[in-house]
Structures are given as structure tokens and as C-alpha cells.
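Example (one chain per record):
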Amino acid sequence: MAPEEIARKVKGTIADRLGLPENEVLPAATLVEDLGADSLDIVELVMAIEEQFEVEIPDDEVQKLSEPRRSRARSGTCGASRSCCR
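Predicted structure:
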């Protein structure tokens, strides 16, 4: 599956589960701070994505989904391509 197709499917799943229009689900958006997800939403999203792609997401990666952006930036795990995170 092409990366663009994966991104499209994940974006659709997030929008559907959180009741948002797809155009509000941006690559830089955080689930909690920007999209308003709570801990139950995170669990449901992870389960839906695991089922959709037949994968298992490790618990430590799931934990990062609910961390505030500034905590991830300090730890170097925010995934941004900026020098502050390298």
C-alpha cells in the first residue's frame, strides 16, 4: 500500500471516530490538543487502525499519542523535521 493511501485511510479513520470533517485532520495536528480526543478516543482509534491495517501498535507508541506537543518536542519524539527535535 502506498504511503499516500495509508495516510488517507488513517485520516479518514481519525475524522470518522472523532466526528470531524477530514479537512480538519492535518498532519501536524495532535490528537488531544488540536483534535480534542480524550483517552477513550485514543484507545478506540488505535484499535480501529490496528484492525484496519492488521498491525499491532506497541503500548509505548500509543502513549506518545496522548502526550502534549511540547513534551514530545523536548524528548525528540515529535516526528517534526525541525532541528529542535533532532
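Caption: Residues 12 and 70 are 26 Å apart (CA to CA).
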